[in-house]
Amino acid sequence: EGFGPQPMSSDVEETGRQRLRRLVMDRERLDDLLNGITRTPFRSRFALRPSELTYTASHGPDAIARHARKIVDERLAPACPDKDGRQTPWGGHPVFRAQHATATCCRKCLQTNHGIARGHELSELERQYVVAVVCRWIERESRTRKAGVPPPTLF
Predict the structure, then answer these.
(1) Angle 122-126-128 from CA coordinates, rounded to 5°
(2) Full-prediction pTM beyond 0.85?
(3) Which of 59, 77, 147, 154 could form a disulfide with 122 if both were Cys (CB 3.0 to 4.6 A apart)?
């Protein structure tokens, strides 16, 4: 079962699984999603700090994606994560900052903002989705900062 476009008739409602599959592979849809989430006052204040930008540039997108996957697997994927709601540090790694910016930091935020219900272990597709969202935000943020746009202040 691949992640390519899924045939759908116009009279069949899209399932959550089909939506996730589409979003994982479609940058334009990920951008639309991120534009909505990062428009909120709280989420719009997050930006990569200079040290996180340097880390991202020196490690590259493949390593960041691997780190994101490991963090998601360990901290977000369990049905009942340890310290849910407080398991994601505010910084120190680009993935942590991206999780807060994209509302993928805890299971409550995942449910509220992405429609991924609490109380079950994240499926492979849901994990890929979270990693795609986080990595796309980091990619966009890195490009924005390189263009000289000043970061917003968080505190």
Answers:
(1) 120
(2) no
(3) 77
